[in-house]
Amino acid sequence: MSEFPELGDKYNVFGVPKSVINEKVEIEGAAPEAMFVQKILEAVQ
């Protein structure tokens, strides 16, 4: 059972972890810190 099914549906979450940054960039799975920082920078541009 999902704790937040409406958010899971909205962002097409099928597994965790999944991060959505500014509704522009998505990261699925455990990401290395450097990759996570790069994705954040992509999302704010």
From TrEMBL:
Instruction: Name the Pfam families on file.
Output: Thioredoxin_3
- List residues of the Thioredoxin-like fold domain: 2-42
Concerning InterPro entries, the annotation shows: Thioredoxin-like_fold
Coiled-coil region: none
Superkingdom is: Bacteria
Q: Which PANTHER family match?
A: GLUTAREDOXIN-LIKE PROTEIN, GLUTAREDOXIN-RELATED
Protein name according to UniProt: Dehydrogenase, selenocysteine-containing
